[in-house]
Amino acid sequence: MESAVRGGTRWKRFAVVMVPSVAATAAIGVALAQGALAASFSVSGQSFKVSAEKLEGKGFFQYGGMAEGTDLEGNKAAHPVAVSAFKTAEITKMCQSVVTPNVPIFGNISLQLTAGGNGTPVKAENLYLDVEELGANAEFKNIDIGVAAGKATKGPGIQPGTRANPYGFSQQADSAVLTDVKQKAWATTAGTFKLSGLSMKLHKGVKECY
Question: In its keyword annotation, does this UniProt entry include Signal (predicted)?
C-alpha cells in the first residue's frame, strides 16, 4: 500500500540543534489530553526551521506529544508536537536556521547550518523529531493509520526517557520519502547523527532556510 500526502499545519524563535526535524501527514491528531511527553530534555524557548531537498526514512512511527521547557523569560512552557521517529534516515541538502532577536548592539542574529549537499546525505539512526509545522510531498509504503502507540512495531518505539499513552493514536509505515521539506520544530534526538559537508555561519539580520 502506498499513500501520498502534501500538507502543512501552523504554529515560532538560537539553539544549535544540528538535526533536521521532519514529520509526515496532517492526520496525527495530537494527543494532548493523553499525558504524552515528547523530548526527554527541557526544550529551549526557541523553535527552529529546517528545510531539505529529500528525506528517506525506514521504520517510520508517529504519535502526538508535548515539548516541555521554558520560554525566553524562563517561564514554564509546553508546545504540542507531532513526534516522528525513524529507525534510519538519510537527508539530502539539509538546512537549519534559528534567529535570535534583539541582541544588544547587533539586533537580530541568525545562525544557519547546512549539510548533506555534496553528494553524501546526512545519515541518522533512531531519529526522533518534535515538529509543530510541516510542508512537504510525502509517500509512505505499507502505512497503518490509527495504531495504538504502545502496539506500533515498525519504528523505533516511543522515545526512551519519555512517557506517552500506550493506547493513544499513532501511525506507522515500513518507509517514508519526503521531498521539498519545510518545517518548524522544537527538538530532535538521535542515537547517531552523521553530517557530511557541515557548514555553520552567523548572519546579521534575519536569514532563514525558508
Answer: yes
